[in-house]
Specification:
The protein folds into 2 domains: 315 residues, Rossmann fold (3-Layer(aba) Sandwich); 159 residues, 2-Layer Sandwich (Alpha-D-Glucose-1,6-Bisphosphate, Chain A, domain 4), CATH 3.30.530. 35% of the residues lie in helices and 19% in strands. The protein has 14 helices and 19 strands. The termini are far apart.
Amino acid sequence: MREPVARDLGRIPPRPGADQVAPLALVTGATGYVGGRLVPELLANGYRVRVLVRHPDRVRDHPWAADVEVVAGDALDADAVGRACADVDVLFYLLHALVLGHGFGRVEDEMAQIAADAASTAGVRRIVYLGGLLPGGGRGDARLSEHLSSRMRTGEILRSSGVPTIELRAGVILGSGSTSFEMLRYLTEHLPAMITPKWVRTRIQPISVRDVLRYLVGAAALPPAVNRAFDIGGPDVLTYEQMMRRYARINGLGRRVIVPVPLLTPRLSSLWVGLVTPVPSAIAKPLVRSLRNEVVCQEQDIRTLIPDPPGGLLGFDDAVELAVRRVRDADVRTRWSSASLPWAPSDPLPTDPTWAGGSLYEDVRTIEVPAPAAEVWRVVEGIGGVHGYFSMDWAWRARGLLDWAVGGVGLSRGRRDPDHLRIGETLDFWRVEELIPERQLRLRAEMKNPGLAWLEFTLEPLDGGHTRLVQRAVFYPRGLGGHAYWWAVAPFHGIVFPGMARNIGERAAAAAPVAVGG
């Protein structure tokens, strides 16, 4: 299969008098699915790259981290966005707020207005925005979902800045780790027979993430006179039912029995998607509402400005085969769930001075493992996902099911890679908050509970090739309910956590090389 890349698409010309310095691109949403993949493409095309992220440490494990300028800031902080836009030639706007659920549109409007004002003030020469494909191109009487309405308003706000703006409107984006691909994959693989909402008969024009990246990079170099929205899509127009059937055929899963019924409302559909796939119901609901409308390109003018790559755009079958291969080879570069919430207040770490005087519950287990730190780390870093939690996995699955039942993410998100982690990415119902190889792993809970929770592993090398492993569970309760919650689950902790530390040690010791005496 051909390997299209977003290179040799040209660059925005340098500023007058800039002595041919490479143009500077600002990428917002760099911790997200598309943003994390766009950065290396821009670097490969000769751009200098700056990223605006709320937590700079969350990009430090990306392979491109040392090649970009990192600006710390919140997308809702006008001063921070203004600083990030200074001397920027092209702004890539890749922010959204779907995960907030109800009211996300207001937040998206505010973020877009802040970015538009900052770009105008800083003299940014081009804005490139990735929006959503609209039914009827946004014209006529088609009733837009809240999600698509917000995407359309964001484009209008950015264009009102006076900065030449290109809005690329995409529908379903196919690529390993994308929200759309994860929904398609899990629904098809987990359900050989299914009663589905009627939107599975809606026509969709999916596009490969590789072609999305190619259009994003190419759009930055288009002349300033180009100031409009463009529909982008791949060569195939399919219903969701057809996509599921073709996915099953490509992966040898056998024929799927799909029975659409008109009774499943968007709310029930989102709960169904949330149960079967890693996509939480809060995110699935606006996406499902969008799928009620046919989203097919009304024009493809972009192809006259950015020619197709050799061999043409990537078709559905090729895009799926490539994404599946990435998943099987544990080569998923970015994942939809790794995006952080740039507008959320920062919670204190369990070691911060702000904890002084507050109630803090801990469960600490310390063992000495007859294995080097590298072997212990290999086991610790593999926690969750397909490897499980090394103690009473049924209890962890039950906790995940309970979390899903009350609107949380549950365990279905899994891991991007079964063996290796990056700081900032998700792992089941955790997020990797700190990662120092062979020394420390700290996970922050994103499950629903009345407080803040962490699970931390610290390794200390000892003489004789042994390692001290300190396993620490930390909980900061909120209100009386938080205290009651801790004491209610404390008996289970007394069973689960000792077994977890012991089993980690035993696995590491079993894998450790045996020293041969002289």
